Amino acid sequence: MPKKILVLNGSPKKNGNTAKLSCWFAAGARSKGAGVEVINAAFLKYKSSGCTSCRTCQKIKEYECVINDGAKAVLKKMAKADVIVFATPLYFYGPSAQLKVIIDRMFSLYKWDNTTDTFESPLKGKAMALLLSAYEDIGLDNVKRSFKIIADYSEMKFFSLLVPNARESGDIVKLKGIRGKAFAFGKKIASL
Ligand SMILES: Cc1cc2nc3c(=O)[nH]c(=O)nc-3n(C[C@H](O)[C@H](O)[C@H](O)COP(=O)(O)O)c2cc1C
Hints:
By secondary structure, the protein is an alpha/beta fold. The chain is built from five helices and seven strands; from the N terminus they run βαβαβαβββαβα. The protein is about 30% helix and about 20% strand. Helix 1 packs across helix 5. The structure holds flavin mononucleotide. Flavin mononucleotide binds next to helix 1. The site of flavin mononucleotide has 17 residues, from helix 1.
C-alpha cells in the first residue's frame, strides 16, 4: 500500500524556506509512490486561538475535536495518515505558533484513562517527521527533542531534517545540496 503522508506547514511565508523544504520532501516521497498532502496551518480558518481545554473530546467516542473549524478536518486527516510531517521555521527557539495551534488541538486524538494511566490513540504506530529551518544554528536540537518526546509518548517512530543557517525566507535555495537532502529524506520516509 502506498504511504499516506500529511505535511503540516507552519510558516506564514507562502514561498519561504519551509514551503520549499516541504515541496522538495513531497517530491521525494511521491517519487517512491507515496500520496502526499501539504496543508498550510497558517492559512486555516480557526474558531478558537488554540485548544480551549474543554475536554469534550475525552467524553465522546470519536477521536475528534468538537470545535468545528479548519483544524478539525486536519486532525481527522492526521488520524488517517501513515506519516505526519511537521514543517516549521524556528520561532524564538520553538515551532511557529501557527503550527502549535494544531499540535495542541491534537489533544482530541488521545483518549486517556486516568485510573490506569494509559491512553488509546490512532497515532500509535504511525511515524512523525520534523522539517525545521532557522536563520542561525542555535536551538534546533531543543525543538527536535520536544517533537521526539511527543513521538515517543505517542508510540510513533521519529525522523527529522534540521536545516540551520537557512537565513531569511527563500534563502534556503542558496544552501548547497539542501534540495537533494530534502528529496532524499522524502524518499526515505515514503519507504519506511
Ligand atoms: C518571528 C520569528 C522568529 C524567529 N526566531 C528565530 C530564532 O529564534 N532563531 C533563528 O535562528 N531564526 C529565527 N527566525 C528565522 C527563521 O526561523 C528562518 O528564517 C526560517 O528559515 C524561515 O522559514 P520560512 O521562510 O518558512 O518562514 C525567526 C523568524 C521569525 C519571523
